[in-house]
Design goal:
Elements (H helix, E strand, L loop, with lengths): L2 H17 L5 E6 L5 E7 L2 H10 L6 H9 L2 E6 L3 H15 L6 E4 L5 E4 L7 E4 L8 E3 L5 H14 L11 H5 L7 H4 L13 H15 L3 H17 L3 H21 L9 E9 L2 E10 L2 E11 L6 H16 L6 E3 L12 E3 L5 H27 L1 H16 L7 E10 L2 E11 L2 E2 L5 E4 L8 H19 L6 E5 L2 H13 L8 E5 L4 E4 L2 E5 L6 H35 L6 H11 L2 H6 L2 H8 L1 H14 L5
Parallel strand pairs: 8-11, 11-12, 13-17, 17-18
Antiparallel strand pairs: 1-2, 1-3, 4-10, 5-6, 5-7, 8-9, 9-10, 13-14, 14-15, 14-16, 18-19, 19-20
Amino acid sequence: MKQQDKNKVQDIIKEKVALLPSEPGVYQFFDASNKIIYIGKAKDLKKRVSTYFFANNDRNAKLQVMVNKICDIRHIITPSESDALLLENNMIKKYQPRYNVLLKDDKTFPWICVKNENFPKIILTRRKSDDGSKYFGPYTSVGMAKMLLNLIKQICPIRTCRLLLTPEGIAKGKYSVCLDFHIGNCKGPCKGLQSETEYMEFMEQAKEIINGNIGSVTKILKSRMNIASKKRNFEEAQSLKEKINRLKQYQSKSIIVNPSINNVDVISFILDGNMAYSNFIRVVKGSIVQSYSIETRLAIEEDREVLLSTMMMEIKQRLNIELSKKIVVPFIPDTEFDKVTYIVPQKGDKLKLLKFSEKNVNAYRFERLKQMERIDPEKHIERILSTVQYDLHLKEMPRRIECFDNSNIQGTNPVAACVVFVNAKPAKKEYRHFNIKTVEGPDDFASMKEVVHRRYSRLLKEGAPLPQLIVIDGGKGQLNAAADSLEKLDLIDKIPVLGLAKRLEEIYFHNDSIPLLLNKNSETLKVLMHIRDEAHRFGISFHRTKRSSNFIRSELRTIKGVGEITAKKLMLRFKTISAIKQASQQELIDTVGKRAAELIRAYFNAHGSKKE
């Protein structure tokens, strides 16, 4: 598009933005080919859309690219903000704009299904169909779902056969009882031995158990037990008592907080680079009766409050449920739902529930990442590097990262280490050690300046590949020292450099006094900490080797007649004092000559060896 035409389009857009109403609704951005590239919702359309064009804040690179492509704006006014969120969610699914979030769910998790048929049975399934059946779940654990079905089987005599029972077939004696009837797990509705009314009473009890209403089922069983006891039907009373005990055992395992917490939804949230994850749990009388997790890929930078609202609406639609009147959240989302109260807990049982949900969403995130790594390792690496690039606002994907660490203990033997990561993995053959040559005494800043200058002046001279990111182990002082060397080499604007301070894992950038603090679960932070710790390990091992070597050499120099050259020859040949002491006289002569060998042997015979 020519600049003149571009200016004309921008003027038209500004006019449209100025005419937008200050009401809730949905807005759509179109590109030059009249294709929707982004859909968003707003409490105030005019205020929200204006931020894309008139805000003076630094933009995310992808967001700026999208804004530059906008050639038209359209909007739809809605009665409320929650209606706008629902409409936005539906429109995103229909049009799938390039810059909107991509939602994925845990659709492989199982559901408990109450079939829509005569004398309905209860089954475990991974597929939902629109056949009128009632679905409960999904369950993050197959074991938990099976345990629930087994409990129902012990409490409620419901059929498990696959027969499609019809009143006509039952009347004609078309069916036969199975083993479940003979062992007391079924009352034989297939032979007309149980009425549909009685059967549906048991089915309602089963639904109550699935929904977590253990108390109501226990109350019914206690009433039946008391009646059986009064009628002196002690065998039935004992059977009912055992069922009550089973329910109590199950309840004791499933309750994680105060049973008085009833009809509460809990939604946790993790933002990790360009991925967001959310877990939903429903709590009835202290028991978790439902759990669901989804993930979102961000095409452009979004506020976490907006993302949480989007994910809440997605959960609501996927599970086909109404959200509870009380929702426990880590922070207040940007959308208010009718008659819904948000709770951000600071302590107590509700905080325990939120932590429980966060544990689940972390497990889900870990499972998804491991699954991706196993199925497509290259895609997994691309995703990690893309996340690092996104979090650190890098222009290029950091396929090659180099990290520097200084090492000196009590000012002795100052050394430095450089480790290299390629595609987020250690490239150990490219690790390098440095002896500090131009600095006297313990001066971390000067040492860092020397090492960085030596490293990159050599790479430039050899025409070797440069990294896309340099990490310095330390805070602003070490970072500024490294930046000075890069500036002298005319690399400061070509290679991003950051410092990682260990105390709070703060990330400092050159010419920026405010550190970046990433979430402790952030993959980007884990990559940076890994490479920093590897540089520290590599530097410390070299420092210890050098100290040990200097200690041994200094002991050899105490032997009268043994000079620096002789000590060096011994070190190269034997490595340790113990090896020198145990060496034969001929080995010593071959290494340093007869006279020196005699002096060394005489010394060790007289003094022994100091501890290495």
